[in-house]
Structures are given as C-alpha cells and as structure tokens.
Write a structure and sequence with these properties.
Radius of gyration: 16 Å
Low-confidence stretches: 10-19
Strand content: 25-35%
Mean pLDDT: 88
Order of helices and strands: EEHEEEHEHEE
Distance between the termini: 30 Å
Number of strands: 8
Strand order of the largest sheet: 1-2-3-4-5-6-8-7
Shape: globular
C-alpha cells in the first residue's frame, strides 16, 4: 500500500493501548482492499443507524456497495486510517463537481474511527492530514441530530483554521456545513 501522509501522535494519544507518539498514516484504499473497507462500513452504518434508521438485511448486514469508488470516477478517494500498522478507521474525500469544475470543492464524505480508538486525537490528526493533502476549498457536513460529530468537526476546523471558516445550516437537508479553504 502507498502511504499518502504520516504524522506522529503525541500527548493526545497517551491514553490509548499503543502508547504515545504513534505514527498515523492515511493509506489509499486500492480495489484489492475493497472487502476490508466494506467490512469497516458495517461499523459505520451501525453507528449511523440511530440517525438514519437503516436496517440490516436478512443476513444481519447493512447493504453496502462501494464499487463506484474504483469504476473510473476519480472524484472518490477512500483512505484507511492506520496507527502503527493497524487499521483504526477510514475517511473518504470527494472532489465535488470535478467533472465540470477544474477547481472542485473537496468534501469529507465519510469519516469513521473505530470505537476503541476514539477520543485519543486520532480522528483530529487524520482530518488535519487530509486537509493538508489538498490545496482546495472544503465542505464538511453533519446531520443535525449528530451532536457529537458537529462538536468534533467544529473543534477540528476551528483549531485547524484558527477560526477562519464559515458555518451554515441547510434546513432542507437538516445539516450543518462548515466551509473553508486550504489554498492560502
């Protein structure tokens, strides 16, 4: 696997089982690792089911099809989040309107840290690495019911941009949206 970016976790990661100064990597998900990402999406869908009311199928799984990530549509960019060689989550960056705009807006489309790794700074570091990978305009959105996600993203983006971002609420979508740029 190609490693896109790495960063060492310091003080915020000390409470986690692997100890301080863990190396965090964003690793592009290749087609041959689609099953691993699909398995992680089971946890993601489970976490979100309290907001989406999605049900499992007769086999006890959520219906998930990620084939479009690798079917020639280069707007989709899934990454595993790894700490010291262990997959601890994933994120997906979408280049919105790339097909019609040479300067597409970048969106954190999906983002998940496995439960046992939460609240240790891993998600924050992974988000900041992703933002630093691309010089672009960014959008990050959260469902209005997901208070934890709203608080997380406000905190991360506020720290990353030193308060230089905007937020709006889209009533028709029932979502909060933060907007900022990494172009400068």
């Amino acid at each position: 696997m190609d490693v896109v970016n790495t960063e060492t976790l310091g003080e915020t990661a000390r409470a986690k089982p692997k100890g301080a100064n863990m190396e965090l990597k964003l690793v592009p998900v290749k087609p041959e690792n689609k099953d691993t990402l699909t398995n992680l999406y089971q946890f993601y869908e489970y976490d979100f089911s309290k907001y989406t009311n999605r049900e499992v199928n007769r086999n006890g799984k959520y219906e998930i099809n990620l084939d479009f990530y690798w079917e020639g549509d280069e707007r989709w960019n899934p990454f595993f989040i790894e700490v010291e060689g262990s997959i601890v989550g994933f994120l997906v960056v979408l280049f919105e309107n790339m097909d019609v705009d040479p300067d597409p807006t970048h969106i954190i489309y999906d983002f998940m840290i496995l439960q046992k790794y939460r609240r240790a700074g891993i998600g924050r570091k992974a988000a900041i690495i992703a933002f630093n990978m691309y010089k672009a305009n960014w959008l990050v959105s959260q469902m209005e019911e997901n208070i934890t996600a709203i608080s997380f993203w406000r905190s991360v983006i506020n720290e990353f941009k030193k308060g230089n971002y905007t937020e709006r609420y889209k009533e028709e979508r029932k979502k909060y949206i933060q907007e900022f740029t990494t172009k400068i």
